[in-house]
Structure formats: structure tokens, C-alpha cells
Amino acid sequence: MKKVLHISKSRPGIWQDTNVTYAQVPGWLGHTTMDLKLTVLRQFEGQPQPLPVIFWFGGGGWMTVDHNVHLPNLVDLVRAGFVVVSVEYRNSNQAQWPAQLIDAKAAIRYIKSNADKYQINPKKVAVMGESAGGHLASMVAVTNGQKQFDVGNYLDYTSDVQLAIPWYGVVNPLSAKQNSASSDFDFVYRNLLGGEPEDNPELVSQADPHTFITDTTVPFLLFHGTEDEVVPVDDSRELYDDLISHGVDADLYELQGAEHMDELFMQPEITKLIIDFLTTHFGNGA
């Protein structure tokens, strides 16, 4: 069969910039230097205006990080008009808190410094993540302006963000440990903080979003499963209540029957809620 097709361009093509080094940090007990990587998903060049950007932080209990593992599930957000940046951050075997927060903010500054290259609007930045990455997204958002966490290069650029979208994110490390339905992951909090949460209230406070919430905290969209046995859904409820009590724009969606890292979070209904939230606050275009 021979046939001529007349195809209209109904959706953009997507580039993937992989293994982009955004920072170099101490490695192997401080004796070496290691690269931290990120991946950028973006539409083909030629868009009429810079696009809002979503920074994604994957989960793994701060014990392991694969910043590329969820990229196929994020493509719909790129099709909808957002640039997605998936960020590698140090795990707790490599560095203890707040190294992970420092890494996240360094990635944001790096991308803002290359805004033209990656077609992003540096004034329209959202952070999103799952589990440990959800905790990181929350912490990035509530620490806008906290300069003690801006360490490294590109310090002429702010790491401030405008929106946060945690998926079943850890909130208070002590509460998550004590109120989880499973004790299988209790050790991850000790590894992250460098001590047991029960014995180190100062460390817990530094890693707790509640500590930093004010009436200027950016809007939040929270997702959590009602059957999560790893991160208590009550912790997201309390985070939501705290945000609302400070006058912060916040929404919490509980997924009935969803477990931790459930496939239900990857469904079109959730993607639509995220896109609607982003569009409501960012508008269409630059």
C-alpha cells in the first residue's frame, strides 16, 4: 500500500536532557567529589513563551534515589505545557539532613541560571515529589528565603518556589516513625537525621515543614492514600490543617484505598488535578 498522509501537529515533541550535572558535592566520606545529576523533559524549541517548571523529587526513603524512574509517568505534564526537571539528591548513606534540601535548592538555582536554555519561566516554579521526595518538596516550599539552605553555586539566583505538590510525603520524622502502621522503615529516619528522632528534637524540628510555615507560605496541593502503612495519612491531614490555620491556600486529596506508592496516583484524574492546580496559580503561558 502506498498512501500520502496529511498530518496536523496536535501535540509537541519532547526533548529529554539526561545526566545534566547541576552540582558537585563531597563524596566517599568527604575524600572525593561526586556529581549530582538531573534530567529535563521539555517541549521542542520554538514555543512562543517560556513555560512553568515542575521540579520532581523521587522517593526511596532517603536510602536510594533514581531520578529517572518516574519520567514516563510525568510526560503528560510536559504535553500540557510544563517543563519537568527530575532531580537526583544525596541519599542518607552519602550525607545527612539537610544535605538533601541543600541539593534540591541547588538544582533549582542551576535551572534558573539556564532558564533560556531550558525554556522555563523562573518566576513560575513548582516542586513535587513522592514519599521522601514529597517531604523534600514540602521542605523546599516552606523554606523560601531561608538562606542557610542555599549553599554552593549560582547564589545570584533565588531557590524560591511558588507551589508545592507533595504525594504521600513524610511530614514530621518522629510522627511518621511512631505512627506508621509498619515498623519496617523506622531505621530510615535515624539514617536521615544522624540520630533517633525520639532523642533529637532539634534535628526533627529542622526536618519538619511545620517549623517553617508562615502566612506567606506558598500554596500546597497534597495527595495521600487512606491505606498508607508507611507514611500516616494523619500527618498530611495535620500539615493541611496547619497550612489552613496560617491562611495558606491548600488542598488535600485522600485517595480511598490507596497504599503507599500506589499506581492510583498515576491515573489521569490525578494528573488533571495537578494541571488544574498549576494552571489556576500560574495561568496559561508566561
Give a verbal description of the structure.
30% of the residues lie in helices and 23% in strands. It has 9 helices and 8 strands. An 8-stranded mixed sheet has the order 1-2-4-3-5-6-7-8, sandwiched between helices. It has a single domain (14-282), classed as Rossmann fold (3-Layer(aba) Sandwich), CATH 3.40.50.1820. It has helices spanning 71-79, 99-113, 115-118, 132-142, 173-179, 187-193, 201-206, 233-245, 268-282, and strands spanning 14-27, 32-43, 51-57, 83-87, 120-130, 163-167, 220-225, 250-255. With 286 residues, it is an alpha/beta fold. The longest helix has 15 residues, at 99-113. It is globular and about 70 Å long. Helix 2 (99-113) crosses helix 4 (132-142). This is Alpha/beta hydrolase fold domain-containing protein. Keywords: Hydrolase. Residues 48-243 form the BD-FAE-like domain. Pfam families: BD-FAE (PF20434).
SSE blueprint and pairings:
Layout: E1 14-27, E2 32-43, E3 51-57, H1 71-79, E4 83-87, H2 99-113, H3 115-118, E5 120-130, H4 132-142, E6 163-167, H5 173-179, H6 187-193, H7 201-206, E7 220-225, H8 233-245, E8 250-255, H9 268-282
